[in-house]
Design goal:
minor pseudopilin epsh fold; four-stranded antiparallel sheet; elongated
């Protein structure tokens, strides 16, 4: 009986670890991919000295880092423009949307698993959950747009990822019971 009890305790401890190893589509990987995308966009903006955007396609669960800013076009309609903060982060000006990095300079791309859903997505206080494409701007001085993205797994597990505007660094909140819903 003692041996069976010990085996039961060991199995109870080991099962979650084994499950995570056998299911790479876990919330852990999704959070890691989003954090890596944010870190890559921030790092590329700072190291290249040029703005970078994290482009999120909620419907496709796709995250891409694009570098540089396209030259303004006189024929470009106003809706193709993106609002971005100035260097101090407190004054707003118009800036053209960034273009993808065509030089192969290591732009980042990630796609979330079909088992992970973007439940809520907000940039600079706006609800962008239903938008087709969402841009999060990173400046060469390290500041970024405000970002809140709530991920939900099929099993109901949820994680909130936020960006600190002044530093452009991401943070993960796991205890969502304490947080009020928007």
């Amino acid at each position: 009986m003692v041996v069976v009890a010990i085996m039961a305790i060991v199995m109870t401890i080991a099962i979650p670890t084994i499950y995570q190893q056998l299911h790479p589509d876990s919330m852990r990987k999704a959070v890691s991919d989003v954090l890596e995308a944010c870190a890559q966009a921030r790092a590329r903006a700072i190291l290249d000295g040029t703005p970078a955007d994290l482009v999120i396609r909620p419907g496709d669960r796709q995250f891409d880092v694009v570098l540089g800013v396209a030259a303004p076009s006189a024929s470009a309609p106003e809706e193709n423009q993106l609002f971005s903060p100035d260097v101090a982060g407190n004054d707003w000006r118009r800036a053209p949307k960034p273009t993808p990095n065509k030089g192969g300079g290591g732009a980042f791309s990630a796609k979330l698993s079909e088992k992970i859903f973007i439940e809520d997505l907000g940039v600079n206080g706006d609800d962008n959950t239903d938008d087709e494409v969402v841009h999060v701007h990173f400046s060469p001085n390290g500041v970024s747009d405000e970002l809140e993205i709530l991920l939900r797994a099929e099993n109901g597990e949820r994680r909130l990822i936020t960006l600190e505007v002044a530093t452009g660094l991401a943070d993960v909140e796991t205890d969502l019971k304490k947080m009020p819903r928007r």
